[in-house]
Design brief:
By secondary structure, the protein is mainly alpha-helical. The chain has one domain (about 1-55). It is about 85% helix and about 0% strand. The chain contains 2 helices and no strands. It has helices at about 1-15, 20-55.
Length: about 60
């Protein structure tokens, strides 16, 4: 997912360089959305892994 966000960021940079404002803005928005989604999933994964790891150390 981070790869897709970086891809849209590069597309936005290239489009901005050539003066295509609409495409650049759209690509930048998609990139920001994907980065936000990636960060949310990263935090959820870290929290879930921490809960799972903390629960496995207890004796039954």
């Amino acid at each position: 997912m981070l790869g897709w966000a970086l891809t849209f960021f590069v597309i936005a940079l290239i489009a901005a360089f050539f003066g295509m404002g609409g495409i650049a803005a759209m690509s930048a928005d998609i990139g920001q959305l994907l980065i936000g989604l990636f960060l949310i999933l990263l935090i959820v994964g870290i929290v879930a892994g921490g809960i799972r790891r903390a629960g496995s150390g207890r004796a039954p």
